[in-house]
Amino acid sequence: MKVVVAKTAGFCFGVRRAVEKVYEQVKNGCHPIYTYGPIIHNESVVDDLQKKGVHVLQTREELETLTEGTVVIRSHGVEREIYDLISRKHLHLVDATCPYVKKIHKIVERESQKGCEIVIIGNPNHPEVQGIKGWSVTPVTIIETEEEAEKYENLNKNPVCIVSQTTFNYNKFNKLVEIISKKRYDIIVLNTICSATEERQTEAKQISAAADCMIVIGGKQSSNTQKLFEICKKECENTYYIQTLDDLDATSLPSMGCVGITAGASTPNNIIEEVQKKCQI
Ligand code: F3S
User: Fold this and answer.
1) What does the alpha-carbon distance between residue 25 and residue 231 come to, in Å, rounded to a whole number?
2) Given Cys at both, which of 48, 172, 197, 235 links 208, Cβ 3.0 to 4.6 Å?
3) 14-41: pLDDT as tens digits
4) Distance 174 CA to ligand 1 centre (A)
């Protein structure tokens, strides 16, 4: 059986950078150390950090109770208000926001200050989208579906600035922008989808189109892994979504043909390698 592993599978630049920053704090002994939300959607990495004394803050309220320590902001980024809170509490801030996400914060802040109405194409429940929203000084509309795009109305007639969640599906983004554009508002479109995501999605599509079976590895909460799964499933009916090797039912793999493997941005290399080895047996 042939096994093809996507070259773009696994940690992207922003996630690798964020995880490294936390390990750096551990090495430098900057205790107590907290991450604002799990640093990545990967239990084994979060558990390892926990053993090394890194605590995960689940809510803003928990952050509010701190009186000392280091707070690491993860690659998804946060709303402006959280920076203000960390500073008011005199906590040590380590900002691991991915530079591509930071760029969106700056666009949203600048364009909203100019009076633009901000539209974010993305999942309203995703922390990255909530963070982006928190940099606008004007009301924000979040659009995820075609129905929402159809219903969208720019009531105040100000120019509309459209940005995207970095991990949003490229084709879906274009489709939603096309729907909004038909309304003939004054629109600025900034495609802020990260190229790492686009490349991973394109490669996953190519591999799954030629595979007899496709395995997508990543956390169940990871939106970029969910999107990869959707893309692969369209091309290859036999697509499986697993978090670790334990979830892989080797009996469901074909005995001949080609198995493709890809993984979301929060999947460490060792998990990808384990799955690859298992498929090769
Ligand atoms: Fe950054 Fe792109 Fe990864 S935005 S966190 S490099 S998916």
Assistant:
1) 37
2) 235
3) 999 999 999 999 999 888 999 999 998 7
4) 19
| pLDDT for the residue 249 | 85
* Marked catalytic residue, from 111, 128, 144, 198: 128
Answer whether 104 contacts ligand 1 (Cβ < 6 A).
no
Nearest one of 50, 60, 1 to 22, comparing CA atoms? 50
43 pLDDT band, cuts 50/70/90, is: confident
* Distance from the alpha carbon of residue 81 to the mean position of ligand 1, in angstroms: 22
State percent of the chain over pLDDT 90.
80
The pLDDT of residue 257 is 87
Sign of CA dihedral 254, 201, 170, 193: positive
Walk across the sheet containing 33-36 and list its strands: 54-57, 33-36, 70-73, 92-95
Is the CB of 222 inside a 6 Å radius of any atom of ligand 1?
no
Q: 128 catalytic, yes or no?
A: yes
Q: Is 11 in the pocket of ligand 1 (CB under 6 A)?
A: no
The residue whose CA is least distant from atom 6 of ligand 1 is: 14
